[in-house]
non-specific serine/threonine protein kinase
Amino acid sequence: MEFLKGESLSDVIKFRPLNLERFLKIVRQICFGLECAHKGIMFEGEMCPIIHRDIKPSNVLVVQDPALGELVKILDFGIAKLIQSGEAQTQSFMGTLAYCSPEQIEGKELDSRSDIYSLGVMMYEMLTGEMPIFPENSSFGGWYEAHHYAKPKPIPAKFRLPSDLESLIFQCMAKAPGERPQTATDILKKLEKLESSPAESEQETIVAKPKPRTDKAIKSTKPTFRKTSPKGDDICLKMTWPEDKPQQKIVFPHFVRASEGNFASLWVMLNEEDIANRLSSIRYNQFVFITNPHPMILWITLLYHREHGPRWLPCYLDLKSSSGQRFARLLGESGYYWILFFALEKGKKCQHVLTTSIAADQCQNLQQWADKSQLLPGGKPQITKRMLKKEFEKLKPTIENKLKASYTTSRNGSSL
């Protein structure tokens, strides 16, 4: 069993409701968790959905995470129900009266839409600090009447929430299951549209990024092989595009094996003109690490040119895989990597090579993350990747603005 140290969502919202941006970050992760549970697990040769049946703030834990800032965990699957085809569900009530769906309080058969109702009640509370429905009394019968017939209170105008978000919350609390969003995925899609203009947040996403360094610091932390040597050129320019990769605009990490050892590299295929424009670009890299639900690194490389703009080269390293472990350790130990360029018009032979440095603090982080990941459980890598993609989109403007500001002092294309 995993030990978690954090704060329950009920404590987080006890004295003050969440601002919009923090709400979106937390509820998005809750939806990811529900999405996984509702898709199910393989049991006796059958994919069986899991219905939580007790979604409420006290069953959500907010944990501080070095990459995400806040990592959200859904707790207490003790009364969760594994739904198998052909199996009759128990006709009894289980859950928490204030958050349960009308069908749940009746003891009916449940599906994922019951959890979505509970989520709607909780979302209302997260944003307002109040409950949307009040019974005449706190008895079972009082809550039965409230969930079946009472209309949720309107959200006070003072909270100034987007109308689309208010609409989503009330849709989740629809009395009839068929009138609610049908899956957690449906909710996630609607939340994505709201994240383009969130309110100012009190939380900051923490990532491993290069610290400002003086020329003196660069010299003291500089690995012995920072620039592409003639030998490096000789090795890389002999490389050919892999047969199992499509000849199109893509980027992927690749081990370069030579008599001198193994070297970390990114292989990129672009138009010949684009490659020519990138050879004099500023090179920048940054790494973002998420531990849960699956340990993974987002490896960001950016080639920035004042006239031609940014060329982003993102890759993902799964730290539960042997190749991901090797890449993270090799990057951390060597302090640099090669970028091999292949032109769409020139066939399969490598045309140009660049080398980019990795800051000393990032090298240390990479090795620590590789070590830490060996002790962590694996989960759903596709969910972590989706979370990292979200963080990547948020980081882009910050990184690009930084490079625009520093362009005049960094024209030689060295790493920042």
Notes: The two ends are 42 Å apart (CA to CA). The mean pLDDT is 82. The domain at 7-194 is CATH 1.10.510.10 (Transferase(Phosphotransferase); domain 1). The CA atoms of residues 60 and 130 lie 17 Å apart.
